[in-house]
């Protein structure tokens, strides 16, 4: 760590929370006053580093009907309904034509895209400085070489302004803006992740990012679990995703139903849905539900949200889930005798194949007057005694040092 980074770290770490909040509020007031005199389209997102974000090409579904200039906007905040004026990227004629060329081994001349552009060039509407069809043929050959290079060497970053660029709509949706050739090739080659440049963000999306940062300000400048949306990935979190990696490594069932109890903002449902699971997440907190629903919409997820206590879930839903996640949540149910009894009844109707359990720290102040306060393996024994599970093992430790058990 460099001296500058170390000094910055020490300042941030030891600055009192009240002073951080004061500095933030002064900075926010300054920003509001500064940007109030400018039109919306010239605001820059103050919560972004205006750099590159990493995106799964399959998550870019829609394309702008009228793109924003990548040199003019550069991360600008734009209000209005531009994010509604879109079409499906995979219906663009370059994508459909190259897909046929790739899959059916067609010649360029037999594709709809080539025929359209060649006709435009013949009529004097030059493309990419191509003044005649012969020059256009050379351009097509360049694209073929780029496709083969990506196929052979993998997707490489281009010049900073020559990346695929996207705009981010009001709900967080990634909308293609520029660079259709590279994005088409990445999609056809099933590339898992590519760098993209954010050209503009909708004003409502930036407002939502602001809400997340204000939440983190009241929680030691961190959210609880890593955020999976690429435009939020740089926000610090308590957990960095290692719990998912540990659990995923020890699963013996695949692409089945999963129940996440106390899912917070839905990190595990995002990850396991992406891995092919049908997910159900239980969350009672109204504040958490607000962020959970917004983040689900932002990434177009399908998992089902159950917005009440796990004890109120219909028993059929519980019985149908093969994998149960209970990470740092069951201790909330043993603080009072009434919920302790409900937890026992809940465990008795569980029919899952595997449970992944993370116990609490029994020395935490919140457990001082708890009705029951189990130590790690005593808690596991309690779960096994009251459920259909018979075995357990420690499979790893979370970032905060708590053991993670597989109970089966």
What characterizes the major β-sheet?
8 strands, mixed
The helix fraction, in percent, is: 25-40%
Which structural class matches the secondary elements?
Answer: alpha/beta
Number of folding domains? 2
Q: Using the 3D structure, state the CATH architecture of the largest domain.
A: 3-Layer(aba) Sandwich
The overall pLDDT, averaged over residues, is 89
Shape: elongated
How many helical elements? 13
Low-confidence stretches: 34-42
* Rg (CA only): 26 Å
CATH superfamily of the largest domain: Vaccinia Virus protein VP39
What topology emerges from the helices and strands here?
Layout: H1 3-14, H2 17-35, E1 43-44, E2 52-55, E3 62-64, E4 76-78, E5 86-88, H3 93-104, H4 112-122, H5 133-153, E6 164-168, E7 174-178, H6 180-188, E8 194-202, H7 203-217, E9 223-225, E10 237-239, H8 242-249, E11 257-261, H9 267-274, E12 278-282, H10 286-298, E13 304-306, H11 315-320, E14 323-327, H12 337-349, E15 354-358, H13 376-385, E16 392-397, E17 403-407
Parallel strand pairs: 3-7, 4-8, 6-8, 9-10, 11-12, 11-14, 12-13, 14-15
Antiparallel strand pairs: 1-4, 2-8, 3-5, 6-7, 15-17, 16-17
């Amino acid at each position: 760590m460099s001296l500058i980074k170390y000094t910055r770290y020490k300042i941030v770490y030891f600055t009192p929370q009240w002073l951080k909040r004061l500095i933030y509020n002064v900075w926010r007031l300054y920003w509001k006053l500064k940007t109030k005199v400018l039109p919306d389209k010239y605001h820059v997102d103050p919560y972004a580093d205006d750099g590159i974000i990493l995106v799964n090409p399959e998550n870019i579904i829609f394309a702008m009907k009228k793109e924003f200039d990548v040199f003019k906007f550069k991360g600008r905040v734009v209000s209005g309904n531009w994010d509604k004026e879109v079409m499906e990227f995979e219906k663009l004629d370059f994508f459909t034509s190259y897909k046929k060329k790739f899959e059916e081994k067609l010649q360029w001349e037999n594709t709809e895209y080539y025929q359209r552009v060649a006709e435009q060039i013949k009529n004097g509407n030059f493309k990419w400085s191509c003044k005649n069809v012969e020059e256009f043929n050379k351009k097509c050959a360049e694209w073929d070489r780029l496709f083969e290079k990506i196929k052979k060497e993998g997707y490489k970053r281009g010049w900073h302004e020559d990346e695929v660029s996207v705009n981010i709509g009001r709900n967080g949706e990634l909308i293609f803006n520029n660079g259709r050739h590279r994005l088409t090739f990445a999609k056809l080659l099933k590339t898992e992740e590519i760098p993209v440049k954010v050209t503009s963000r909708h004003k409502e999306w930036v407002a939502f990012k602001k809400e997340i940062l204000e939440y983190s300000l009241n929680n030691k400048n961190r959210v609880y679990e890593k955020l999976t949306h690429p435009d939020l990935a740089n926000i610090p979190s308590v957990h960095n995703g290692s719990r998912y990696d540990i659990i995923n490594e020890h699963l013996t069932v695949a692409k089945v139903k999963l129940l996440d109890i106390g899912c917070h903002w839905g990190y595990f449902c995002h990850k396991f849905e992406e891995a092919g699971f049908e997910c159900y997440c239980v969350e009672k907190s109204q504040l958490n539900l607000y962020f959970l629903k917004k983040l689900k919409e932002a990434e177009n997820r399908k998992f089902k949200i159950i917005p009440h206590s796990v004890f109120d879930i219909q028993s059929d839903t519980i019985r149908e889930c093969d994998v149960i996640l209970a990470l740092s949540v069951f201790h909330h149910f043993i603080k009072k005798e009434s919920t302790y009894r409900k937890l026992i009844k809940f465990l008795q109707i569980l029919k899952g194949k595997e449970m992944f359990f993370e116990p609490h720290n029994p020395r935490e102040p919140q457990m001082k007057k708890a009705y029951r306060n189990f130590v790690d393996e005593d808690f596991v024994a309690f779960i096994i005694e009251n459920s259909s599970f018979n075995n357990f093992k420690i499979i790893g430790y979370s970032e905060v040092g708590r053991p993670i058990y597989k109970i089966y």
